[in-house]
From TrEMBL, chain A:
Keywords: Membrane, Transmembrane, Transmembrane helix. Pfam families: AzlD. This is Branched-chain amino acid transporter AzlD. The lineage of its organism: Bacteria, Bacillati, Actinomycetota, Actinomycetes, Kitasatosporales. The chain crosses the membrane at residues 6-25, 37-56, 68-97. It comes from Streptomyces finlayi. The keyword Transmembrane helix applies.
UniProtKB/TrEMBL annotation, chain B:
Belongs to the AzlC family. It is found in: Cell membrane. It is a multi-pass membrane protein. Keywords: Cell membrane, Membrane, Transmembrane, Transmembrane helix, Transport. GO terms for biological process: L-valine transmembrane transport. It comes from Streptomyces finlayi. Coiled coil: none annotated. This is Branched-chain amino acid ABC transporter permease. Residues 1-10 have a biased composition (Polar residues).
Length: 102, 256
Protein backbone atom coordinates (compact mmCIF):
# COMPACT_ATOMS: atom_id res chain seq x y z
CA UNK A 1 0.00 0.00 0.00
CA UNK A 2 2.75 2.44 0.91
CA UNK A 3 4.29 1.81 -2.53
CA UNK A 4 1.03 2.98 -4.14
CA UNK A 5 1.08 6.11 -1.98
CA UNK A 6 4.59 6.87 -3.21
CA UNK A 7 3.51 6.23 -6.83
CA UNK A 8 0.46 8.48 -6.63
CA UNK A 9 2.37 11.25 -4.82
CA UNK A 10 5.14 11.14 -7.43
CA UNK A 11 2.67 11.03 -10.34
CA UNK A 12 0.64 14.00 -9.08
CA UNK A 13 3.74 16.03 -8.17
CA UNK A 14 5.56 15.37 -11.43
CA UNK A 15 2.47 16.12 -13.54
CA UNK A 16 1.79 19.40 -11.74
CA UNK A 17 5.35 20.70 -12.22
CA UNK A 18 5.14 19.84 -15.94
CA UNK A 19 1.81 21.66 -16.26
CA UNK A 20 3.05 24.63 -14.22
CA UNK A 21 5.69 25.40 -16.83
CA UNK A 22 3.09 25.56 -19.60
CA UNK A 23 0.61 27.68 -17.60
CA UNK A 24 2.57 30.34 -15.70
CA UNK A 25 3.37 33.67 -17.38
CA UNK A 26 6.72 33.52 -19.13
CA UNK A 27 8.56 36.00 -16.93
CA UNK A 28 7.53 34.49 -13.59
CA UNK A 29 10.44 32.07 -13.32
CA UNK A 30 12.89 33.87 -15.58
CA UNK A 31 15.01 35.30 -12.75
CA UNK A 32 18.67 34.33 -13.37
CA UNK A 33 19.09 32.80 -9.91
CA UNK A 34 16.01 30.58 -10.30
CA UNK A 35 17.19 29.51 -13.76
CA UNK A 36 20.68 28.64 -12.51
CA UNK A 37 19.33 26.74 -9.53
CA UNK A 38 16.92 24.78 -11.71
CA UNK A 39 19.80 23.76 -13.97
CA UNK A 40 22.04 22.74 -11.06
CA UNK A 41 19.47 20.88 -8.94
CA UNK A 42 19.28 17.87 -11.30
CA UNK A 43 23.10 17.78 -11.42
CA UNK A 44 23.28 17.41 -7.63
CA UNK A 45 20.43 14.89 -7.49
CA UNK A 46 21.70 12.72 -10.34
CA UNK A 47 25.25 12.67 -8.94
CA UNK A 48 23.99 11.73 -5.47
CA UNK A 49 21.68 9.04 -6.85
CA UNK A 50 24.44 7.56 -9.00
CA UNK A 51 26.71 7.32 -5.96
CA UNK A 52 23.95 5.85 -3.77
CA UNK A 53 22.83 3.18 -6.20
CA UNK A 54 26.42 2.18 -6.97
CA UNK A 55 28.04 2.17 -3.55
CA UNK A 56 25.21 1.56 -1.07
CA UNK A 57 23.53 -1.58 0.17
CA UNK A 58 20.88 -0.38 2.59
CA UNK A 59 22.80 2.03 4.82
CA UNK A 60 26.20 0.42 4.32
CA UNK A 61 28.84 1.64 1.88
CA UNK A 62 30.17 -1.19 -0.30
CA UNK A 63 32.41 -1.53 -3.33
CA UNK A 64 31.09 -4.44 -5.37
CA UNK A 65 30.47 -5.49 -8.99
CA UNK A 66 28.26 -2.42 -9.56
CA UNK A 67 31.38 -0.23 -9.24
CA UNK A 68 32.95 -2.04 -12.18
CA UNK A 69 29.70 -1.73 -14.12
CA UNK A 70 29.56 2.02 -13.53
CA UNK A 71 33.19 2.37 -14.64
CA UNK A 72 32.23 0.59 -17.88
CA UNK A 73 29.30 3.01 -18.33
CA UNK A 74 31.64 5.97 -17.77
CA UNK A 75 34.05 4.62 -20.39
CA UNK A 76 31.16 4.14 -22.84
CA UNK A 77 30.09 7.75 -22.22
CA UNK A 78 33.63 9.03 -22.86
CA UNK A 79 33.58 7.09 -26.15
CA UNK A 80 30.25 8.82 -26.99
CA UNK A 81 28.33 5.54 -27.12
CA UNK A 82 24.53 5.73 -27.49
CA UNK A 83 22.32 5.67 -24.37
CA UNK A 84 21.39 1.99 -24.65
CA UNK A 85 25.02 0.91 -25.11
CA UNK A 86 26.00 2.82 -21.96
CA UNK A 87 23.35 1.05 -19.87
CA UNK A 88 24.09 -2.30 -21.57
CA UNK A 89 27.81 -2.00 -20.78
CA UNK A 90 27.09 -1.38 -17.09
CA UNK A 91 24.73 -4.36 -16.87
CA UNK A 92 27.03 -6.74 -18.78
CA UNK A 93 30.17 -5.85 -16.81
CA UNK A 94 28.34 -6.09 -13.47
CA UNK A 95 26.96 -9.51 -14.40
CA UNK A 96 30.40 -10.60 -15.65
CA UNK A 97 32.19 -9.58 -12.46
CA UNK A 98 29.52 -11.35 -10.35
CA UNK A 99 29.83 -14.50 -12.47
CA UNK A 100 33.58 -14.45 -11.77
CA UNK A 101 32.78 -14.28 -8.06
CA UNK A 102 33.43 -10.55 -7.52
CA UNK B 1 28.41 33.64 -20.91
CA UNK B 2 25.85 36.26 -19.93
CA UNK B 3 25.60 37.37 -23.55
CA UNK B 4 25.01 33.85 -24.74
CA UNK B 5 22.21 33.37 -22.25
CA UNK B 6 20.57 36.61 -23.30
CA UNK B 7 20.62 35.84 -27.00
CA UNK B 8 19.31 32.32 -26.38
CA UNK B 9 16.52 33.77 -24.25
CA UNK B 10 15.57 36.30 -26.91
CA UNK B 11 15.47 33.55 -29.49
CA UNK B 12 12.97 31.53 -27.51
CA UNK B 13 11.04 34.38 -25.93
CA UNK B 14 10.06 35.74 -29.29
CA UNK B 15 8.31 32.47 -29.81
CA UNK B 16 8.80 32.27 -33.53
CA UNK B 17 12.47 31.37 -33.89
CA UNK B 18 14.19 33.01 -36.80
CA UNK B 19 15.68 30.34 -39.02
CA UNK B 20 15.47 28.61 -42.34
CA UNK B 21 12.40 26.35 -42.50
CA UNK B 22 13.28 22.67 -42.22
CA UNK B 23 11.48 19.93 -44.20
CA UNK B 24 8.81 18.23 -42.06
CA UNK B 25 10.23 14.81 -42.95
CA UNK B 26 13.62 15.78 -41.50
CA UNK B 27 11.99 16.92 -38.25
CA UNK B 28 10.00 13.68 -38.00
CA UNK B 29 13.18 11.67 -38.61
CA UNK B 30 15.05 13.48 -35.81
CA UNK B 31 12.12 13.08 -33.44
CA UNK B 32 11.68 9.37 -34.21
CA UNK B 33 15.41 8.78 -33.65
CA UNK B 34 15.27 10.22 -30.15
CA UNK B 35 11.87 8.68 -29.36
CA UNK B 36 12.87 5.17 -30.40
CA UNK B 37 16.33 5.15 -28.75
CA UNK B 38 15.12 6.45 -25.40
CA UNK B 39 11.77 4.68 -25.61
CA UNK B 40 13.51 1.33 -25.75
CA UNK B 41 15.31 2.03 -22.48
CA UNK B 42 11.94 1.66 -20.75
CA UNK B 43 12.92 -2.01 -20.74
CA UNK B 44 15.73 -1.19 -18.30
CA UNK B 45 13.24 0.65 -16.12
CA UNK B 46 10.75 -2.22 -16.15
CA UNK B 47 13.42 -4.70 -15.14
CA UNK B 48 14.87 -2.40 -12.46
CA UNK B 49 11.47 -1.66 -10.98
CA UNK B 50 10.48 -5.32 -10.83
CA UNK B 51 13.91 -6.13 -9.39
CA UNK B 52 13.26 -3.51 -6.69
CA UNK B 53 10.17 -5.45 -5.65
CA UNK B 54 7.38 -3.47 -7.35
CA UNK B 55 4.58 -5.42 -9.02
CA UNK B 56 3.95 -5.31 -12.77
CA UNK B 57 0.90 -3.06 -12.18
CA UNK B 58 2.91 -0.64 -9.99
CA UNK B 59 5.75 -0.56 -12.52
CA UNK B 60 3.39 0.17 -15.43
CA UNK B 61 1.49 2.79 -13.40
CA UNK B 62 4.77 4.66 -12.91
CA UNK B 63 5.56 4.79 -16.62
CA UNK B 64 1.97 5.71 -17.56
CA UNK B 65 1.43 8.37 -14.89
CA UNK B 66 4.84 9.75 -13.93
CA UNK B 67 6.49 9.47 -17.38
CA UNK B 68 9.79 11.15 -16.57
CA UNK B 69 12.57 8.58 -16.47
CA UNK B 70 14.96 9.92 -13.86
CA UNK B 71 12.16 10.41 -11.32
CA UNK B 72 10.91 6.87 -11.94
CA UNK B 73 14.36 5.32 -11.44
CA UNK B 74 14.89 7.47 -8.33
CA UNK B 75 11.57 6.39 -6.81
CA UNK B 76 12.08 2.66 -7.27
CA UNK B 77 15.69 2.97 -6.07
CA UNK B 78 14.59 4.75 -2.91
CA UNK B 79 11.78 2.24 -2.28
CA UNK B 80 14.18 -0.66 -2.79
CA UNK B 81 16.54 0.90 -0.24
CA UNK B 82 13.66 0.78 2.25
CA UNK B 83 12.97 4.50 2.22
CA UNK B 84 9.81 6.09 3.62
CA UNK B 85 7.32 6.43 0.68
CA UNK B 86 6.97 10.18 1.02
CA UNK B 87 10.74 10.80 1.29
CA UNK B 88 11.15 8.59 -1.77
CA UNK B 89 8.47 10.58 -3.60
CA UNK B 90 10.13 13.86 -2.57
CA UNK B 91 13.42 12.86 -4.21
CA UNK B 92 11.59 11.87 -7.40
CA UNK B 93 9.57 15.10 -7.32
CA UNK B 94 12.63 17.36 -7.03
CA UNK B 95 14.16 15.61 -10.04
CA UNK B 96 10.94 16.37 -11.94
CA UNK B 97 11.02 20.09 -11.15
CA UNK B 98 13.37 20.74 -14.08
CA UNK B 99 10.45 19.93 -16.39
CA UNK B 100 8.80 23.17 -15.25
CA UNK B 101 11.60 25.10 -16.90
CA UNK B 102 11.31 23.10 -20.10
CA UNK B 103 7.59 23.86 -20.01
CA UNK B 104 8.24 27.58 -19.70
CA UNK B 105 10.41 27.66 -22.81
CA UNK B 106 8.16 25.26 -24.75
CA UNK B 107 5.07 27.29 -23.88
CA UNK B 108 6.50 30.33 -25.67
CA UNK B 109 7.91 28.30 -28.53
CA UNK B 110 4.87 26.12 -29.28
CA UNK B 111 2.14 28.67 -28.35
CA UNK B 112 -0.35 25.89 -27.57
CA UNK B 113 -4.09 26.58 -27.19
CA UNK B 114 -5.26 26.44 -23.56
CA UNK B 115 -7.26 23.24 -23.98
CA UNK B 116 -4.29 21.32 -25.39
CA UNK B 117 -1.94 22.26 -22.55
CA UNK B 118 -3.12 19.74 -19.91
CA UNK B 119 -2.48 16.94 -22.44
CA UNK B 120 0.79 18.34 -23.78
CA UNK B 121 2.03 18.72 -20.19
CA UNK B 122 2.58 14.99 -19.74
CA UNK B 123 5.01 15.12 -22.68
CA UNK B 124 7.17 17.91 -21.25
CA UNK B 125 10.42 16.04 -20.50
CA UNK B 126 14.16 16.16 -21.31
CA UNK B 127 13.94 14.56 -24.74
CA UNK B 128 10.90 16.41 -26.14
CA UNK B 129 12.35 19.72 -24.95
CA UNK B 130 15.72 18.90 -26.52
CA UNK B 131 14.13 18.10 -29.90
CA UNK B 132 11.63 20.98 -29.93
CA UNK B 133 14.08 23.66 -28.78
CA UNK B 134 16.53 22.65 -31.52
CA UNK B 135 14.03 23.38 -34.33
CA UNK B 136 14.30 26.50 -36.52
CA UNK B 137 10.58 27.32 -36.82
CA UNK B 138 7.40 27.03 -34.73
CA UNK B 139 5.94 24.52 -37.17
CA UNK B 140 9.04 22.28 -36.89
CA UNK B 141 9.06 22.66 -33.11
CA UNK B 142 5.41 21.57 -32.89
CA UNK B 143 6.02 18.56 -35.13
CA UNK B 144 9.22 17.67 -33.27
CA UNK B 145 7.55 17.94 -29.86
CA UNK B 146 4.49 15.91 -30.84
CA UNK B 147 6.30 13.11 -32.67
CA UNK B 148 8.93 12.72 -29.94
CA UNK B 149 6.32 12.78 -27.16
CA UNK B 150 3.97 10.24 -28.78
CA UNK B 151 6.73 7.83 -29.91
CA UNK B 152 8.43 7.99 -26.55
CA UNK B 153 5.21 7.58 -24.56
CA UNK B 154 4.06 4.53 -26.52
CA UNK B 155 7.46 2.80 -26.61
CA UNK B 156 8.42 3.67 -23.03
CA UNK B 157 5.21 2.12 -21.72
CA UNK B 158 5.40 -0.97 -23.94
CA UNK B 159 9.02 -1.66 -23.04
CA UNK B 160 8.29 -1.00 -19.35
CA UNK B 161 5.67 -3.77 -19.45
CA UNK B 162 8.04 -6.12 -21.30
CA UNK B 163 10.84 -5.36 -18.83
CA UNK B 164 8.62 -5.95 -15.80
CA UNK B 165 7.34 -9.25 -17.22
CA UNK B 166 10.84 -10.22 -18.35
CA UNK B 167 12.29 -9.60 -14.90
CA UNK B 168 9.90 -12.12 -13.39
CA UNK B 169 11.07 -14.70 -15.92
CA UNK B 170 14.72 -13.85 -15.22
CA UNK B 171 14.43 -14.60 -11.52
CA UNK B 172 17.32 -13.04 -9.56
CA UNK B 173 17.81 -9.80 -11.52
CA UNK B 174 20.98 -8.94 -9.60
CA UNK B 175 22.72 -12.01 -11.01
CA UNK B 176 22.16 -10.48 -14.46
CA UNK B 177 23.73 -7.20 -13.32
CA UNK B 178 20.43 -5.36 -13.78
CA UNK B 179 20.85 -3.42 -10.53
CA UNK B 180 23.57 -1.49 -12.40
CA UNK B 181 21.04 -0.18 -14.97
CA UNK B 182 19.66 2.53 -12.65
CA UNK B 183 22.98 4.20 -11.78
CA UNK B 184 24.14 3.88 -15.42
CA UNK B 185 21.00 5.73 -16.56
CA UNK B 186 21.66 8.49 -14.01
CA UNK B 187 25.27 8.78 -15.14
CA UNK B 188 24.22 8.95 -18.81
CA UNK B 189 21.74 11.76 -17.99
CA UNK B 190 24.31 13.54 -15.83
CA UNK B 191 27.32 13.41 -18.19
CA UNK B 192 26.10 15.98 -20.76
CA UNK B 193 25.21 18.38 -17.92
CA UNK B 194 28.80 18.53 -16.63
CA UNK B 195 29.79 21.36 -18.98
CA UNK B 196 31.61 23.77 -16.68
CA UNK B 197 33.48 23.80 -13.38
CA UNK B 198 30.30 24.85 -11.57
CA UNK B 199 28.39 21.73 -12.64
CA UNK B 200 31.37 19.47 -11.86
CA UNK B 201 31.79 21.05 -8.42
CA UNK B 202 28.08 20.58 -7.65
CA UNK B 203 28.28 16.92 -8.72
CA UNK B 204 31.43 16.33 -6.66
CA UNK B 205 30.04 17.96 -3.53
CA UNK B 206 26.76 16.03 -3.90
CA UNK B 207 28.60 12.70 -4.13
CA UNK B 208 30.75 13.45 -1.07
CA UNK B 209 27.72 14.59 0.98
CA UNK B 210 25.74 11.54 -0.16
CA UNK B 211 28.43 9.02 0.77
CA UNK B 212 29.21 10.81 4.02
CA UNK B 213 25.59 10.92 5.21
CA UNK B 214 24.48 7.51 3.92
CA UNK B 215 25.51 5.52 7.01
CA UNK B 216 24.09 8.21 9.33
CA UNK B 217 20.70 9.33 7.93
CA UNK B 218 17.77 7.03 7.13
CA UNK B 219 16.15 6.18 3.75
CA UNK B 220 16.01 8.84 1.07
CA UNK B 221 17.18 11.67 3.35
CA UNK B 222 20.85 11.73 2.21
CA UNK B 223 19.80 12.37 -1.42
CA UNK B 224 17.68 15.36 -0.39
CA UNK B 225 20.50 16.82 1.73
CA UNK B 226 22.97 16.21 -1.13
CA UNK B 227 20.70 18.31 -3.39
CA UNK B 228 21.68 21.30 -1.24
CA UNK B 229 25.04 21.14 -3.04
CA UNK B 230 23.36 23.16 -5.84
CA UNK B 231 22.39 26.28 -3.82
CA UNK B 232 25.58 25.96 -1.74
CA UNK B 233 27.93 26.02 -4.73
CA UNK B 234 25.90 28.84 -6.34
CA UNK B 235 26.20 30.87 -3.13
CA UNK B 236 29.99 30.49 -2.88
CA UNK B 237 30.42 31.07 -6.61
CA UNK B 238 28.40 34.30 -6.34
CA UNK B 239 30.54 35.46 -3.43
CA UNK B 240 33.80 34.69 -5.23
CA UNK B 241 32.62 36.50 -8.36
CA UNK B 242 31.57 39.58 -6.40
CA UNK B 243 34.97 39.67 -4.68
CA UNK B 244 36.78 39.24 -8.01
CA UNK B 245 34.73 42.03 -9.53
CA UNK B 246 35.53 44.48 -6.74
CA UNK B 247 39.22 43.45 -6.85
CA UNK B 248 39.52 44.20 -10.55
CA UNK B 249 36.84 46.77 -11.22
CA UNK B 250 38.82 48.28 -14.08
CA UNK B 251 39.85 44.99 -15.69
CA UNK B 252 36.39 44.65 -17.21
CA UNK B 253 36.24 42.17 -20.08
CA UNK B 254 39.88 41.13 -19.70
CA UNK B 255 39.06 37.87 -18.00
CA UNK B 256 37.15 35.22 -19.99
Amino acid sequence: MSVWIAIIATAVGCYLVKLLGLLVPANALERPLVQKLSALLPVALLAALTAQQTFATGQTLVLDARGAGLAAAALALVLRAPFLVVVGAAVAVTAGVRALGG
Amino acid sequence: MADQTTSADIRTTRGAPAGEPKPDAAVVRDALGVGVAVGLSGFAFGVTSAGAGLTVAQTCALSLLVFTGASQFALVGALAAGGNPLTAAAGAFFLGVRNTFYGLRLSQLLALPGLVRPFAAQGVIDETAAVALAQPTRRSARIGFTVTAVTLYVLWNLTTLLGALGAEALGDTNAWGLDAAGPAVFLALLAPMLRSTTERTVAGVAVVVMLGLLPVLPGGAPVLVAALAAPLVLFFKGRTERRDNSDSAEGKGAAQ
